[in-house]
Write a structure and sequence with these properties.
The protein is an alpha/beta fold. It contains four helices and 28 strands. The chain folds into two domains: 140 residues, UDP N-Acetylglucosamine Acyltransferase, domain 1, CATH 2.160.10.10; 53 residues, Udp N-acetylglucosamine O-acyltransferase, Domain 2 (Up-down Bundle), CATH 1.20.1180.10.
Length: 258
C-alpha cells in the first residue's frame, strides 16, 4: 500500500513498492522505480532514471536523477541507483550518468547530509558519509566506508579510498589512499584513521602494518616510486598493505600529499 498525500504528483507509469510514503508536493516522474518502505519527503523531485532501493529516506527538496550538468549529454537514457537503507537529507542533488557509463550509483547504508551533491557518473560505495555541502564532481569514485567532511570538494575522476576520512572544507584534487586521514591545504597526510578502523573490527596488528606502510610512503623523503619499491620488498604477504600498493599503482591522478 502506498501512503500518498493528495498534493503529491505521481506518474501512473512509475513503479512503487509496498509501504512507500509520498509526502506533500513531491513529484515522481515516469521512468522511476522505488522499493519497499521508502519515504519521499515534501517537495522532493524524483526524475526519470531513478532506481531507489528499499528502506530509503529522502527528505525535503531533494533532487534525484536530474539531468547531468555535462554539455555532451544528449538526453540519453541513463540512471541513478540508490542502495537500500540509504538516507538522503534536504536539498541533496544526485545527477544521473552520461553516455560514458550510463549510471551514477549510491551504495547501501549511505548517509548524504544536507546540500551535498553527487555529479554524473559517480560511484559512492556502501556505508559512506558525505557531510553537509560535500561536492563530488563527475566520475568520482568514493570507496566503501569513506567519510568526507562538510564542504569538502572532490575533483573529477578522483578516487577516495575505502575507510579514509577527509577533513571538512578541503579540496581533493588527487586520489586519497585507503585507511588514512587527510586534511590541510594542499591536502596532506594526517595519520591513520585508527578510530574508524577499530570501530569496524580491524586488529592492532592490521593497523600497525598499515602504519608502517604509510610511514614509508609519507614519513620519509622517498618519492612514490621509491616508496612502492620498499613496500614491495619489506612488507610481503600483508593483505591490507597489498591493497594500498594496488591502489597507488593503479592511480591515474596521483596520490594526495605526494
Amino acid at each position: 500500500m502506498t501512503h500518498q498525500h493528495p498534493t503529491a504528483i505521481v506518474s501512473p507509469k512509475a513503479k512503487l513498492g509496498d509501504n512507500v510514503t509520498l509526502s506533500p508536493f513531491c513529484i515522481i516522474n515516469d521512468n522511476v522505480e522505488i522499493g519497499d518502505n521508502t519515504h519521499i519527503g515534501p517537495h522532493a523531485v524524483i526524475y526519470d532514471g531513478a532506481r531507489i532501493g528499499n528502506n530509503v529516506k529522502i527528505y525535503q527538496g531533494a533532487s534525484i536523477a536530474h539531468v547531468p550538468q555535462d554539455l555532451k549529454f544528449n538526453q540519453e537514457e541513463t540512471f541513478v541507483y540508490v542502495g537500500d537503507n540509504t538516507t538522503i537529507h534536504e536539498h541533496v542533488t544526485l545527477h544521473r550518468g552520461t553516455s560514458e557509463t550510463r549510471e551514477s550509483r549510491i551504495g547501501k547504508n549511505v548517509l548524504l547530509m544536507a546540500y551535498s551533491h553527487v555529479a554524473h557518473d559517480c560511484q559512492v560505495g556502501d556505508n559512506c558519509i558525505l557531510a553537509n555541502g560535500v561536492q563530488l564532481a563527475g566520475h568520482v569514485h568514493v570507496e566503501d566506508w569513506a567519510i568526507l567532511g562538510g564542504l569538502s570538494a572532490v575533483h573529477q575522476f578522483c578516487t577516495v579510498g575505502k575507510h579514509s576520512m577527509i577533513g571538512g572544507g578541503y579540496r581533493v584534487v588527487k586520489d586519497v589512499p585507503p585507511y588514512i586521514l587527510m586534511a590541510g591545504e594542499p591536502l596532506r597526510f594526517g595519520g591513520m584513521n585508527s578510530v574508524g578502523l577499530r570501530r569496524r573490527g580491524f586488529s592492532n596488528e592490521q593497523i600497525n602494518a598499515l602504519k608502517r606502510a604509510y610511514t614509508i610512503l609519507y614519513g620519509s623523503k622517498n618519492n612514490v616510486t621509491q616508496a612502492l619499491k620498499i613496500l614491495q620488498e619489506q612488507i610481503v604477504g600483508d593483505e591490507l598493505v597489498e591493497e594500498v600498493i594496488d591502489f597507488i599503482t593503479s592511480s591515474k591522478r596521483g596520490i594526495s600529499g605526494k
